Amino acid sequence: MNEERLQAVEQLQRDLAVTAETVEHPNGLCMVTASAKGEIRALHLHPALLQQGAKAVGDVVTETVRLAANAAVQTSFNKMALALGDGMAIDVESIAGDSPFRSTWNPVAPQKSAAGKATPQRRPRTPIVEDPDEDAFFENPFGRR
Question: What is the pTM of this model?
Fold first, then answer.
């Protein structure tokens, strides 16, 4: 039993060492392959991105690297749960923090609109009407008089 567990842990360590994920930015102008440690293994930029200036390139690349690294970390959590069981994965999460996709429902930050958003109109509450006859049904549920 212990020998099997040691082999499983060694295999898990080998798997985690080579785990990497490839992610394309939502705008389609950048694709990154990154490891769970944040190492960039591949970077592909669309020529249209380069025409947007250095700040835009930096923002898109940084965001895409973060998404790819988060995807690789999530894959690592999933592999760990398969190898060690959900109980151990939950214990590791309690120490290391939530997995990336559990801690955020939308990994891509929404673009901020330049135009201010109007606050929605609130509907007035409907007034509560006192019904003087509200007990009539319970006094005579079948409508007999």
Answer: 0.63
d(CA 134, CA 132): 6
Calculate Rg over the CA atoms of the chain: 28
Helices 54-84 and 2-18: angle between axes, nearest 10 degrees: 170
Identify the three-state secondary structure at position 96. Answer: helix
**26 φ/ψ angles, rounded to the nearest 5 degrees:** -55, -25
**What are the phi and psi torsion angles at 140 (to 5°)?**
-140, 80
Where residue 25 falls (left for φ over 0; alpha for ψ -120 to 50; beta otherwise) is: beta
User: For residues 22 and 114, what is the distance between their CA atoms, to the nearest angstrom?
Assistant: 31
Strands 40-45 and 30-35 turn out to be antiparallel
Average pLDDT of the residues of the chain: 78
